[in-house]
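G.,

No rush on this.
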Amino acid sequence: MRYTTMSAMRPSIGAEEEPRTTQDTGAIDEAVLRDSRRRILRLFAAVAVHPLLALPLGVRAAAAPQHLSFRALRNGSAIGVHTVSFQQDGERLVVTTRIDISVKVLFFTAFYLKHEAEEVWQAGRLVAVKSTTDDNGTRLQVSGTAVQGGFRIIGDEGPFLAPAELLTSNMLWDTRMLSADRLIDVQYGGVIGLVVKPLGPALVDTPHGQVRANRHHLITPHYAGTLFHDSSGRWVKALIEAKGEIIEYALAN
């Protein structure tokens, strides 16, 4: 930036400054008023098209996604639930995942999974996470926070620095997962690989009628399965392969 010295701003000795006439001043004032009117009209037009522009900056956060609730089914029988809830907190999105599944064979519990996680997202980046898991008697805890240069996640095997842009293993609801090849593991900690293969469209029954959905098969070290997302990107169904079983997620809301 170039600065002008005070001496350069003073008129030279002996030089006479040409006085401005009333006509000149009036022309300048009229030009300023015209420019101000144009700016105000542009602002009103922008607010009419984008009403959120009229709100304070901290209130302009996008609306949270719709909550998701799935019934977990095995051979058509209910064995549990998987829910995802969203809460907008200013410019942050808080995502809470709850899984409670129990498979019984001949009155005995063959396996069960209880998992609860809270993720905090801001500007498309994970800024914090905490989770607890009971995987058939194995209890796990994971926590993490964004740091300079990445995301520091702590699991049973200790701390790990993950790339800042990674999604998490719980983000079955987000179609960005379908183009990822690595994920932050919210259940066990660390980073896991992901392989995704498109399978084409299919019709899915939902509480609001039948919808056309895109299918993708995915494989991770801990689970595999097929995800179904409708044309708007909403998660509407899943077939999860775990513990040698196929568990169907049927949308309940």
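When you get to it, here's the other one too:
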Amino acid sequence: MKNYIVRILARKHRKDKRFKLHEGVMVVVDPHSEEKDEIIDISLGGLAFCYNNERNRPDEIFEIDIYIDNELYLKKLKVKLISETEIGEVPFESANVRRLSGQFMWWEPLQKADLDSLLKKYGIGKA
């Protein structure tokens, strides 16, 4: 219940509107892996995504790449880990699915414009 209340209060205080995205927009946390994870929602301020905890947990500050239809769209976005919670189990495996929320940090010159373009083209409404 506490996590639910915290999430509701956070939504009211967010500076940037979060969006759901069309299918095919994915995030990669480990550049040495081909595993792509589903983005739950995203804004100019940050994102939330699901990942399988069999892999290494990201550091407090980590980089992501965003792919659209398996093509690299944005690379090396710096993200600060805000929260991580378990949301379910993977059937027939010993792994759990976790939700990770992060805040974008240290923009490179065109990254923010490219992300804004992604939201306009692939966003499907408020999260």
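The helical segments are 2-13, 111-122. The mean pLDDT is 83.

Enjoy the weekend,
O.
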